[in-house]
Amino acid sequence: MSSEKQRRTVPAEAVELYNQYIHGEINRRAFLDGVKKFAVVGLSSSAIVKALMPDYAMGQQISRDDERITAEYVTVPSPNGHGYIRGYLVRPFSADSRSETPRALPGIVVVHENRGLNPHTEDVARRFALQDFMAFAPDVLTSVGGYPGDDYQGGQLFSQLDPELRLQDIEAAARWLQNRDDCTGRIGITGFCYGGSVSNEMAVRMGNDLAAAVPFYGGAADLALTSNIRAAVMVQHGALDTRLVNAWPDYEAALRSAGVTYEGHIYPDSVHGFFNDATPERYNADTAALAWERTIAWFNQHVRA
């Protein structure tokens, strides 16, 4: 990875303020008022806010109608959760893709941040399809109408849902993917922020039924339950994401003590959300490319095997 520092047009403190806002730690007014402190000549507060907001068109790498993939929305039963959960299912296109018995592929569950199944997460699912996986990206907001098209509103809806029922929905989605006829039965999970925490939690809950987990900047599950993990776990954090970085040594010690196959990567000059190319003030292109390369290699080794 290049040693050149990530270039931002707004101060790092403003990026952190945005992180607090999208995680529900401060409300919209507090965010907008806080941004005003960083306004300078040539960079107004409105320009800072615009720079921090996601641009999903800019972050799209794989078109929704790319001929190399097949994609559909599927609703999955979740009897122990909210009753059902809808998600985005993507496979690489091949001659047998639309047949009754397409070739079986390893599966990857892709879990969004705490705002619902937004276009960035769907794009990541398409990227996995082009790496010859089948991917399913569930929308935790299904029971409240699904991702509303606005991240702030999505975060408000997210906070209304029972945390345990959210997890039950995702586990139901993962087990549905694993048991599909066109899946090999081996699955992995990855996710970002909330989705990273979920990836760690599913590693605890699913035991032998989960082959690998790659949490991006997500909190660990209960360390006392780490011995339940059978998946190979690769943790990825940005070095400037100090809260999670400071918590990593305890998680690493628990993984090591439990005999879990794991790797941990702390990327320099990278903030929380460094992988999200729809939020350019958080995105670090060099770090994201390396993290993606490692993610695919990890899933090829532990899920495709």
Mean pLDDT: 92
**The CATH class of the largest domain:** Alpha Beta
Work out the count of structural domains: 2
Main sheet, how many strands, which sense, barrel?
Answer: 8 strands, mixed
Q: Record the strand order, biggest sheet.
A: 1-2-4-3-5-6-7-8
N to C succession of SSEs: HHHHEEEHEHHEHEEHEH
Number of helices: 10
How would you describe this protein?
With 305 residues, this protein is an alpha/beta fold. The chain has two domains: 10-53, no CATH class; 61-302, Alpha/Beta hydrolase fold, catalytic domain (Rossmann fold). Helices cover 37% and strands 20% of the residues. It has helices spanning 12-22, 28-35, 45-52, 56-59, 119-129, 151-159, 163-178, 194-206, 242-257, 285-302, and strands at 69-78, 83-92, 105-111, 134-138, 183-192, 212-216, 232-238, 262-267. It has an eight-stranded mixed beta sheet, sandwiched between helices. Helix 8 (194-206) links the parallel strand 5 and strand 6 (212-216). Helix 1 runs antiparallel to helix 2 (28-35).
Topology:
Layout: H1 12-22, H2 28-35, H3 45-52, H4 56-59, E1 69-78, E2 83-92, E3 105-111, H5 119-129, E4 134-138, H6 151-159, H7 163-178, E5 183-192, H8 194-206, E6 212-216, E7 232-238, H9 242-257, E8 262-267, H10 285-302
Parallel strand pairs: 3-4, 3-5, 5-6, 6-7, 7-8
Antiparallel strand pairs: 1-2, 2-4
Any key phrases for this structure?
305 residues, alpha/beta, Rossmann fold, 2 domains, eight-stranded mixed sheet, 10 helices, globular
Summarize the structure.
It contains 10 helices and 8 strands.
